Amino acid sequence: MQHNREAFEPHTCLWIGASWTKMARRPIRYSRSLSLDHYRASEVRGLLNYSLSCCVNALLQSFSATTELLDILKKLHPSDKTGRNNIPLQLKNTLCAMRNTSNPEPHRYFLDCLYSHTIRRFTQQDADEIFHIILNLSQNQMPDQDLAQEIRNLYDIRMETQVMCSECTYVQRVPSSSFSLPLAIFEGVNTLESCIQSFFQRQNLLDGDKCYCDRCGQKQPSTHELRLVSLPQILCVHLKRFRNVGGLTRKLYSRVTFHETLNMGIFAAEGQSENVVSGSPQADENYRLYAVIVHIGFAMSGHYTAYIRPTQDLTWYYADDSTVHPVSWANVQNTYEGSETAYMLLYRKMSRNAPGEL
Ligand SMILES: [Zn+2]
User: Fold this and answer.
1) What is the whole-number distance in angstroms between the Cα of residue 321 and the centre of ligand 1?
2) Which end of the chain is more exposed for a tag (fewer CB within 10 A), N or C?
3) Successive 10-residue mean pLDDT values, the chain, 358 residues
4) What is the CATH number of the domain that holds 21?
5) How many whole angstroms from 214 Cα to the centroid of ligand 1?
6) Separation of 166 CA from ligand 1 center, angstroms?
7) Cα 171 to ligand 1 centroid, rounded to whole Å
8) Domain contains 275
9) Using CA atoms, how far apart are residues 25 and 161, in angstroms rounded to an integer?
10) Are 232 and 349 in contact (CB under 8 A)?
């Protein structure tokens, strides 16, 4: 059975610039009779690209692999407050449909719902921004406040900004939180650990950057640093590959290596002999990587895909809109540098009792 609706060919997105014309998107017609294998490989299934939805598609793959999120959303029951434009309800329906049906468009209503809010069709999106929009809408539109808090707790990285007066050592503390750890990366070679270390590094505020000290009653040379207060079950790392230079956005193609496991405890433990944040993470906060959101292309035009490792599966899968296939860890490592680079990393906290668990 043929459908008249135009869909877009997998693998492609809207590319701008002559060098990408051979990859230019062209409308095709798709049929529901397409083999299910085209959409599904094991627990991961493909999603058609609608209106440049590759960014949302890649994020949906990561949400689908975040079983903890669906466990929370499943507690949401439709009510008068949850209509067709309710993001948490549509997200729940989509994630359930991605598991249980062969429907090639389980995300159709979710996309319509997103587009009815703040996200525009046919626009290149920033995955980290859309990630935050989806999670914020999921919380704000959740009729049950306990469930909204559960979603927040699942991703929330709680930190504390500490500004210490270098003259009198008085410390001003400001709490903050985020759904992702926004890491600056540098030209040349980076490791994920070095980027995290830089993020938490103490900085000296001198001259024009001096801070007002409440105790001294005047601006003083100070130090500024971020401290971890608590780490969530799902740790999202945002590699900030886009930089604004002279009003133009450019992409950093530099190398950032990362491993399948990450010990966040070392960042909590370092330099915590003074100004310790109570309840800060333990030295054995181990995480395991289960999703990588990839940006392909340039700063102003690109395409998003995702590497996913489902909870009950040792295999990595590559999801490029409607196409899904198994890959090796070496394939995931190819996103360390170049035009096809890891942009967001999702890690899951491992149980202390079972360090080898997935
Ligand atoms: Zn002071």
Assistant:
1) 55
2) N
3) 33 33 31 42 79 90 95 86 83 90 82 82 81 94 94 95 95 94 93 95 92 94 93 96 88 95 79 49 81 92 93 88 93 94 96 56
4) 3.90.70.10
5) 7
6) 7
7) 8
8) yes
9) 46
10) yes
- pLDDT at position 327 is 95
Asked whether residue 70 is assigned to any structural domain, the reply reads yes
**According to the model, what pLDDT value does residue 280 have?**
59
CA 196/CA 259 separation, integer angstroms = 13
List the domain range (segments joined by +) for residue 27.
Answer: 2-349
Residue 355, domain member (yes or no): no
Q: What's the domain count of the chain?
A: 1
Cα 224 to averaged position of ligand 1 atoms, centre (Å): 13
Ligand 1 center to 213 CA (angstroms):
5
CB 114 within 8 A of CB 59: no
- Comparing CA positions, the residue from 224, 200, 202, 222 lying closest to residue 213 is 222
Separation of CA 277 and ligand 1 centre (Å): 20
Place of tokens 């539109």: 141
Distance 208 CA to ligand 1 centre (A): 16
> What local confidence, expressed as pLDDT, does residue 8 receive?
32
Query: If you measure from the C-alpha of residue 196 to the centroid of ligand 1, how many angstroms do you get, rounded to a whole number?
Result: 29
Q: How many CB atoms lie within 10 A of CB 66?
A: 22
